[in-house]
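Re: [help] complex structure
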Amino acid sequence: MTQSKLTEKVPTSNSEPAYSGATARTDNWWVEPLLVAIVFTAFGIYATYRAFENQYYEFGPYLSPFYSPNMKEFFPDLPFSAALLILPFPLAFRATCYYYRKAYYRSYFAHPPGCAVTWFKRKGYTGEFDFPFNLQNLHRYAFYFAVPIVLILWYDALKTLWYDGGLHLSVLTLVMLANCALLSGYTFGCHACRHLVGGHLDSFSCPENKHSYKKWQRVTALNEKHQEWAWTSLISVAITDIYIRMACTNPSLAFQLF
Amino acid sequence: MPEASTRTATLKVYRGDREKGEFKTYKVPVEAGMVVLDAIHYIQQNFDPELAVRWNCKAAKCGSCSGEVNGMPSLMCKTRMDKFRPDEEIMVQPIKTFPIIKDLVTDVSWNYEVNKRITPFTPAEDANWTFYQEDIDRVQEFRKCIECFLCQNVCHVLRDHDRKDTFMGPRFMVRTAGLEMHPLDEADRLKFLKEEGHIGYCNITKCCTEVCPEDIHITDNAIIPLKERVVDEFYDPIGKFIRGVLGVDKKKAKK
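Output below.
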């Protein structure tokens, strides 16, 4: 695509003798991207394994978030793991998330690996302007699919409170509810949501926009901790699934309180 | 009476221009409350009056003394000497992204050329100038910018990939956000943002936010909301179709 020139004179960055090497930083800037890469990779391996395992995801009223909604109810003869139909949606939501973009561009693409750290120089760099990275602009569509998934997970968690004609509570139910709360904080604090509920407006004071302003303020309050919601919800999904998998093989681990 | 200094810091300061230069080492006594700019002034006064440094307020408000201290883009007047270990050598460089004129002074005039490309504030002729706090909260944050250009310096698109030919950089996305979100502004800068300022080059790695001495949430409050507005206009066919069917006028919908 032809790109118009922004200015007539185009200065270039300084190099030697004032600058040499990747960076002059003396702090441990590499720790954060390394930790991010380790955790992402570990989660990716585990999620892939669980998606293909196709068992130990349901017992009694409990259903793993990797397999929710329970597609086997709708397609009992599905020849492959139902998780493969479900996981692309949360994956798309997280892959296009504005926080995760920062995390994986730094940790996996090293563009840049850290602030003021140069590993790659590329004159033709176009970031998220060209294909395939311009697909990041579809984040709001991923958000539209993520919302019903969160609502279904709330349904899954709440239905474990009432079954066999009575009220029950287990530690596993509490873990599932906590997972839903964290996923809700992450999903409804997303930048696309913030824009859609009111961020697109220029004026909050006119009477017809007052409600949008209140919604925008609430989403903004969540959005300010989007990174924290992103990490805690990612870890809680993994913990919930691991717990349900363990409880599938040993139901007493659900720790029924009543 | 102030106590006599008991500690000496070692500073390695870049001396030279863009093509030729070297790092010179200076020993500077450290006093309580001292910042890196004080140490640079000490060198000027005691060792080398020709050391060039741009500064003005020494209060982190003029944005003149941008540099790189131990590799981290920062205002020299806001970088305290007591944050360094006593045995730590402190390296002071000019900012990398803009051409060195002499020593720690760089030519940042490219930024002023980019600034001229942005459509200025354009109110309606019959604008009602009554303001409400909820309308101005968002844009007030952007007015804190002191134009130190540390965000432009650390942005890897400008610094590493040298896309100054097409990318406007975070500072000017902050300015554009302040105009686009202004309740009285009537101009539309979205096409400019996408096709000339190339907001799409930004990959949200947030270094601009990390180095901002005014703590402006550049990425979350300026760049991402602008990216979402560009999505509204150019990348969301369903949303655009629905707005078209409902007959929603874009400018009116924003008010």
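The mean pLDDT of chain B is 94.
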